[in-house]
Design goal:
Elements: H1 12-26, E1 31-36, E2 44-47, E3 50-55, E4 58-59, E5 72-73, H2 79-90, E6 95-98, H3 103-115, E7 119-122, H4 132-153, E8 156-159, H5 162-171, E9 179-181, H6 196-202, E10 210-214, H7 224-236, E11 241-245, H8 252-260, E12 266-270, H9 277-283, E13 286-287, H10 297-304, E14 310-312, E15 330-332, H11 337-349, H12 351-368, H13 371-389
Parallel strand pairs: 1-3, 6-7, 7-8, 8-9, 10-11, 10-13, 11-12, 14-15
Antiparallel strand pairs: 2-3, 4-5
Helix pairs in contact: 1-13, 2-3, 6-9, 7-8, 7-11, 10-12
Length: 390
């Protein structure tokens, strides 16, 4: 398992990598995790059936292009030799990589090509940015650096939703050995049983209806649409609070809130430990954070907790899985601020609608997104790839 992001670093890719690695180990497989050093996490750790090696890393400098996102890279003169030594000792049958632009993905791809080891690459992030000049830079990086590497390495790609599938087909056509659609998997049980009162007391929320918005604030999830919908929501529900949870790398939503006069309705709490997510969900009346750019782990976890989700997203977001507006989720068109406000108001003021959407969303997660089922699907794909090697 290869990912520059791995706990204790927080984030959807990090937590999914850990959950899958633990699932592989629980199924009886030997699992080595290669990741980047992060804060004071040990360089070598053995737990949950995993051997985790954290390689020395440096942090990407804070720039407008990177939006101050804390990306760690492991590149140094000794990296390839260190990776070769670790993997020659481990002798992997298959390598599962995460992130198409990470140096650990590239380093392990070089090893895999030389040793004839198949690679499965899960793509979590599209190199996109809403600002035109940065979008051109990212498109150039995709064309000049990422696609040539992928064309040479020819990994099999996991695409988690239809937007990622379209992105891959547009940016990386011919630069892979096939696509495998596997949605994000979550444990639907761990989000249950939280203490919502604890959260309400900590952030002085009282009995106010709460729009929970979970996830780091970056350009692709900037919360601007939520803020622009907020004046209409506040007019209908004057005591509503928007609880923004996650590191703020891109503060545009706060500037927009000040200009719209709704800053008083926003509580930004910053990054919190994953262990507090059940408490946050228990305090929520509704969850909303996606900006028409696909539905990720935080959305699915909210649905698993029975919290109604409002999302500007496509009903075909997950190939073969039906998202139905007003039934298991509340959907509006991306960019439709009025529609977003209407659905937030419905969830906040109509308990029957909120309850039914929450119950149906929870059932959908158990049926189609349970981590155990998703892990089995990954193991099936990895097993086929390893068998084809021999």
């Amino acid at each position: 398992m290869v990912n520059n992001f791995f706990p204790p670093r927080t984030g959807g890719s990090s937590h999914l990598s850990e959950a899958l690695a633990k699932g592989y180990a629980a199924a009886g497989h030997e699992v080595l995790v290669l990741t980047a050093a992060y804060q004071d996490a040990p360089a070598l750790e053995e737990r949950d059936g995993l051997r985790i090696v954290r390689l020395p890393a440096w942090m990407l400098p804070q720039t407008r292009l990177a939006v101050s996102f804390d990306i760690s890279f492991t590149s140094r003169p000794t990296l390839l030799r260190r990776v070769r030594t670790l993997l020659d000792d481990f002798r992997p049958d298959v390598i599962h990589q995460h992130g198409q632009f990470f140096d650990l993905t590239w380093a392990t791809s070089l090893y895999a090509r030389r040793r004839g080891v198949p690679t499965l690459l899960s793509i979590h992030t599209r190199l996109e940015n809403p600002r035109a000049r940065y979008a051109k830079v990212f498109r150039g990086l995709d064309a000049i650096m990422v696609k040539p590497f992928m064309w040479w390495a020819k990994p099999k790609l996991v695409v988690m939703d239809v937007l990622m599938q379209e992105y891959v087909q547009q940016r990386y056509r011919g630069a892979h050995s096939g696509l495998v659609p596997i949605p994000v998997g979550i444990d639907p049980e761990w989000v249950l049983g939280g203490n919502g009162q604890h959260i309400r007391e900590r952030y002085a929320l009282g009995d106010a209806p709460v729009i929970l918005s979970v996830g780091h604030v970056i350009p692709l999830r900037d919360r601007v649409a939520l803020v622009e919908a907020l004046p209409a929501v506040v007019a209908a529900v004057p005591d509503v609070k928007l609880l923004v949870v996650g590191q703020i790398y891109y503060p545009l939503f706060q500037e927009r809130a000040r200009s719209l006069g709704v800053e008083h309705a926003i509580v930004a709490v910053g990054k919190v430990p994953k262990s507090e997510v059940p408490d946050l969900l228990a305090a929520a009346t509704v969850e909303s954070h996606e900006q028409g750019l696909g539905l990720g782990t935080a959305t699915l976890e909210a649905m698993a907790a029975g919290v109604p989700v409002v999302a500007p997203a496509r009903p075909d977001n997950f190939p073969g899985i039906a998202l139905r507006d007003g039934e298991n989720i509340l959907l509006c068109e991306p960019g439709d601020t009025r529609g977003l406000a209407e659905r937030l108001i419905a969830a906040l003021t109509d308990p029957a609608v909120a309850k039914q959407v929450g119950v149906n969303g929870q059932a959908l997660i158990h049926e189609r997104f349970s981590l155990s089922g998703i892990t089995d699907r990954y193991l099936e794909v990895l097993g086929d790839m390893a068998a084809a090697r021999h």
